[in-house]
Write a structure and sequence with these properties.
Elements: E1 3-5, H1 6-9, E2 10-14, E3 28-31, E4 36-37, E5 40-41, E6 48-49, E7 62-63, E8 68-71, E9 77-80, E10 87-89, E11 93-98, H2 105-122, H3 133-137, E12 140-142, H4 146-184, H5 195-204, E13 210-213, E14 218-219, E15 233-236, E16 252-254, E17 263-267, E18 272-275, E19 284-286, E20 294-297, E21 300-305, H6 312-319, H7 322-331, H8 342-346, E22 349-352, H9 355-397
Parallel strand pairs: 3-10, 15-20
Antiparallel strand pairs: 1-12, 2-11, 3-6, 4-5, 7-10, 8-9, 8-11, 13-22, 14-21, 15-16, 17-20, 18-19, 18-21
Helix pairs in contact: 4-9, 5-9
Length: about 400
Amino acid sequence: MEHKTLEEVCCFVTGFSFKSSLFREHGTPICKTTNITDGYISFDSMDCFDISDYKEKLDKFIIRKNDIVIGMSGTIKVGISNNDNICYLNQRVGKFIPNLEVINNKFLYYFLCNTVKNIYENVSGGSVINLSNSDINTLSIPVPPLPIQEEVVRILDAFSELTRELTRELELRKKQYAYYRDRLLSFKDVSGMPERIRKMIAELCPGGVEWKTLGECILKSSNIKWKNESSCFYYIDLSSVNRDTHKITETTKIKSDTAPSRASQIVNQGDILFGTTRPLLNRYCQIPQEYHNQICSTGFCVLRPNISIINERWIYHIISSANFMDYVEKYQQGASYPSISDADVKKYKIPVPPLPVQEEIVRILDRFDALCDDLISGLPAEIAARRKQYEYYRDKLLTFREAKRKEPM
């Protein structure tokens, strides 16, 4: 199959140097390298500008639906716009304009996605890779007849759509779980609760459900005395907690002479940890048996349930609720590195129905949680498998033996 350089089959336009001092929260969006995610252009968190702030003609920097872009600095990323809205190319982002009589736009996109891994190996530079126009224009691309390109695109589109369907399914299951969790934890209106729970509430607390602060429902935790301590501990830092599964994934072993200054709080099985530094990142978990009597960072608020009045899983589900996160967002402080104090976390008021009611609701929520956890662990594994399958076939379908070019007579 004939191979050509990219500059033979498409034009390449690099972005405009927009001034950060003129960025706005609202206006016309600007696509930076950071806005290229998972093969697409994400319009979330884009900086904006007002076109009247510039005298230059900026039409050639417009990104429209189905345009293909590449981030040219740092992590080299390829993306395609699937959005009807336009945005503009920022500097160090380039756009491809294919000659559609020679190259199918989507074929070019899949080829570029498949070539990214080779770019790192072939481009020289320091610790940060910076692509030049020449690096891109001289890339070699197979150019089979358009019907073959279209068939390759059809197959790869089918793989991509399957992955997107699985991703959508995962998001829907998460939303479904969150909906039922918040509904079951709201005692301001019990009419939407299951009949069995409504009857238990009417029987056990006819005067209404009592509300307490988190601080009134927990026991005091303690810090380790490092002075005479020679034992080895597992250290649970903020990065140790997976934000999706809310489980501890990685820890480091520490002793008194290697412990970071933030390693001081002793945790017990059943304790609930809530990350108070950048709290909206949702770093929370419950301590399992294997981390009993270990150490966590002071970046966590340790909530040790007083099990005489509160079910430990009740607190876990409470801090995962939308109402709690709304409270955290309201009371966090600091713009660039927000945090919320332990004291403010413990001021949050929660419903404290009798233990049998808590246990029944916890039973339902744990069942949802287990189902969701199975889906969260199962669907990503399925998605990962499909992505590997897609990448395998993408590589096979885009590998063509290069024909020798005929020498001119």
